[in-house]
């Protein structure tokens, strides 16, 4: 997948609900130190937004703030439905957070929390396992899986909830090329079904394959944002140009 226009999605795949999410002058500070500053950004439904920037730029913090794990200390975070932290969203971390249970039980747990009945839950778990190629691992302890298998499980568990938006924090950072390809295919599948994707990555090749839009952060500030094709062929800021050239950006 290149960094060009959005792929065609089935009619009705785009969902209306909690998106767009607007960040209006958002900041986040700890002990008086600003880690994110004056961020204004709109997350549009049905898009794949990739967040880029050097280490320490604030990419993970921005994802956690959007997801609701941390609260802005200034500015406003505004979901379209007016809620503080909508249920119809999910987040997958660089290091998967898995229960000390089987693969199938990990997928079933959030479905149970959502109030889905036992019979429907079993059917949904079976569909999810098959859909993401995890059926053979269904009864394996989740924490004994390989790193790639654990990340596939984390992605499948999120996908089982059919979130409107999925936040991904460096989802392939520790994976080999084969496992990375599987995760990218899962991302594109969920995107094609209407899930909005917001992902951070340090891998420019991956960003080019996945991004429809790009947000570039530097020192906790949003330096530029827009369509991926325009960013990769003609970014405006010297910081972004240096980053794309492989120079050290402080």
List the helices and strands and how they pair.
Elements (H helix, E strand, L loop, with lengths): L20 E10 L2 E11 L4 E5 L6 H9 L6 E6 L9 E4 L10 H11 L4 H14 L15 H14 L4 E5 L7 H16 L3 E5 L3 H7 L2 E6 L2 E7 H7 L3 H7 L6
Parallel strand pairs: 3-7, 3-8, 5-6, 6-7
Antiparallel strand pairs: 1-2, 1-4, 8-9
Helix pairs in contact: 2-3, 2-4, 3-4, 4-5
Organism: Paracoccus tibetensis
Family: Belongs to the ABC transporter superfamily.
Protein name: Tungstate transport system ATP-binding protein
What is the share of helical residues?
A: 25-40%
Which percent range describes the beta-strand content? 15-25%
Specify the CATH architecture of the largest domain.
Answer: 3-Layer(aba) Sandwich
Alpha carbon gap, first and last residue: 30 Å
Q: How many distinct folded domains?
A: 2
Order of strands, widest sheet: 5-6-7-3-8-9
The named CATH superfamily of the largest domain: P-loop containing nucleotide triphosphate hydrolases
Class of the largest domain in CATH?
A: Alpha Beta
Order of helices and strands: EEEHEEHHHEHEHEEHH
Largest pleated sheet: 6 strands, mixed
Named CATH topology of the largest domain: Rossmann fold
**Which residue ranges are poorly predicted, with pLDDT under 50 across at least 5 consecutive positions?**
1-15
Overall residue-averaged pLDDT value: 91
- Tally of extended strands? 9
Over all CA atoms, what is the radius of gyration? Answer: 18 Å
Number of distinct helices: 8
Structural class: alpha/beta
Shape: globular
């Amino acid at each position: 997948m290149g960094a060009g226009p959005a792929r065609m999605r089935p009619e009705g795949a785009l969902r209306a609900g909690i998106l767009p999410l607007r960040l209006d002058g958002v900041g986040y500070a700890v002990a008086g130190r600003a880690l994110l500053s004056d961020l204004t950004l709109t997350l549009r439904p049905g898009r794949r937004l990739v967040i880029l920037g050097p280490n320490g730029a604030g990419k993970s913090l921005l994802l956690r703030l959007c997801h609701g794990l941390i609260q802005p200390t200034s500015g406003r975070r505004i979901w379209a439905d007016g809620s503080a932290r909508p249920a119809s969203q999910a987040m997958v971390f660089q290091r998967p957070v898995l229960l000390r249970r089987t693969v199938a039980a990990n997928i079933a747990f959030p479905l149970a929390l959502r109030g889905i009945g036992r019979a429907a839950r079993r059917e949904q778990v079976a569909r999810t396992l098959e859909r993401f190629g995890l059926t053979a691992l269904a009864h394996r302890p989740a924490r004994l899986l390989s790193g790639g298998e654990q990340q596939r499980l984390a992605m499948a568990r999120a996908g089982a909830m059919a979130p409107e938006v999925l936040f991904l924090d460096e989802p392939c950072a520790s994976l080999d090329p084969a496992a990375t390809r599987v995760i990218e295919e899962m991302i594109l599948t969920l995107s094609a079904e209407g899930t909005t994707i917001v992902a951070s990555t340090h891998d420019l090749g991956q960003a080019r394959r996945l991004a429809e839009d790009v947000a570039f952060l530097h020192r906790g500030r949003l330096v530029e944002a827009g369509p991926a094709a325009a960013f990769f062929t003609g970014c405006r800021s010297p910081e972004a140009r240096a980053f794309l050239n492989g120079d050290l950006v402080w």
